[in-house]
Amino acid sequence: MIFGDRLRELREAKNLSQGDIEKRTGLLRCYISRVENGHTVPAIETLERMARALELPLYHLMYDGDKPPQTLTVIASNGDGPQTWGLQGKDARYFQQMRRLLAKMNAGDRKLLLHQSRKADKKQQKMNREAAKKQQKATKKYEKAQRKGAKKANHRAKRTS
């Protein structure tokens, strides 16, 4: 991507000189010129500084439309609210690999894989419910022991007074 043309366009639209950008960013005017003329590709940190100097969001330096670009669709979970798994980093690469491999499978194999995934999900949900019940039981038992201990302490305090 050529940032120079877009940077110059945005700078001139705001009626700013390279000197103004130099003062706002701390970058040398000759460096700004090299970027605008396509001789240097700035680091992302430098682009952030330039975006702040132009008082624009960073995506404006890379996007040519009037409206913000559409965001990626968030993967919905089972009523737990939106999840962002698979949108960034290692998860995104894994998700892309899964998509490529699924595209190569025939329909019957995809159906079988989906069935097995649903089965595994149901099993996991059951295990989660059972673990939550155990936790509630343990909490009640602990609270009961605490109340019993407090009663004994009160009883002892009354006897000694």
Commentary on this structure:
The chain has 161 residues and is mainly α. It folds into two domains: 3-61, lambda repressor-like DNA-binding domains (434 Repressor (Amino-terminal Domain)); 75-135. It contains six helices and two strands. It has helices spanning 3-13, 18-25, 29-36, 44-53, 89-104, 107-160; strands at 75-76, 82-83. It has a two-stranded antiparallel sheet. Helix 1 packs across helix 3. The radius of gyration is 30 Å and the shape is flat. The model has no long low-confidence stretch (mean pLDDT 82).
Instruction: Estimate the mean pLDDT confidence.
Output: 82
Identify the overall geometry. Answer: flat
Report on the biggest sheet.
2 strands, antiparallel
- Count the DSSP helices: 6
Strand order in the largest sheet: 1-2
Query: What is the number of strand segments?
Result: 2
The N- to C-terminal Cα distance equals: 84 Å
Total domains: 2
Q: List the quaternary state of the chains.
A: single chain
Helix proportion of residues, in percent? Answer: 55-70%
Strand content: under 5%
Order of helices and strands: HHHHEEHH
Structural class: mainly alpha
Contiguous low-pLDDT stretches (5 residues minimum) are none
Radius of gyration: 30 Å
